[in-house]
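Write out the 3D structure for:
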Amino acid sequence: MHKPLIEILQSEAIALLKELIATPSFSKEENDTADLLCTFFARHEIPFSRVGNNIYARNKNYHSSRKSILLNSHHDTVRPNKQYSMDPFTPVLKDGKLYGLGSNDAGGCLVSLAAVFLYYYNQEDPKHNIVFAASAEEEISGVNGIELVLPYLGQIDFGIVGEPTQLEMAVAERGLMVIDCVAAGRPGHAARNEGENALYKAIDDINWIRNFRFVKKSDLLGETRLSVTVIDTENKQHNVVPAQCRFVIDVRVNELYSFDEILEALKENLKSSFKPRTTRMKSTSIPLDHPLVKSGIRLGKGYYGSPTTSDKALMPFPALKMGPGDSARSHTADEYIYIDEIKEGIETYIKLLDEFI
């Protein structure tokens, strides 16, 4: 590795992350951080393209005859937790930690991968192309994020998705399906025991959901799980029997079940009507014998199945989720990432990729 260059890139990555923290970039509102990333590439005289709020660039000696590796992370954030004790948009460096909204999820990963892209950008005759993409709307699984930009990137053979994994390899991740359910009843006066209580019907279905277990258990991802997370009726009067009760099921799917199988089980057992919001966020995995995973194993990295969903779910090619930071800090008050995690992240990504470039 070229140590002096890496040290320069580490400093630039940290400076870029501070700028990103200081610039609000809620999902669907990433225009200003997209502008920052454009300025970053322009400053390095690297041609880039913008699709919506997604920014992408290719290595200098890109050639369509070569296989391509995607380096991807997102620059949108959730809204700040109400328990923040400091300004979420003021980057604060204290005790080796850089505080600020999006520092850990996934700003540290994003700037580390941007530094790695710069490291390989001028490579004379690379074995693989390197494509960098900073995507929008990841936090809401929006349609104007990675899905929008993928068709512009050319053929991608495999990729790295930057998310905080403590630099361990998330080789699989759960799929996510959110289902809106409606239990129908008939209104009436509670005092006269009239009507048909939709709330009780919903409770019967919720009890079935609570107790049902899918049989097939994944070695990496464990069980497929159903959780009811929201329940509501339009009725707010104490003496009216509700005619309708809505509830929401959060479904976390392992790689052994399809969404169609989940929906069929619900169809056979629920009395409520239901409709999935989307079936796009499928469970994904990269084979343990994939060269990228084997490279990580040689570096002493462990692998696991991730319970959270990322843009990896929307990629039609093998992708490894891996990055500096800790998922446990994501979306928490006073979010932070260690400066040393970013430095280690850049070096680890380079070691992981060196044999491919």
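The mean pLDDT is 96.
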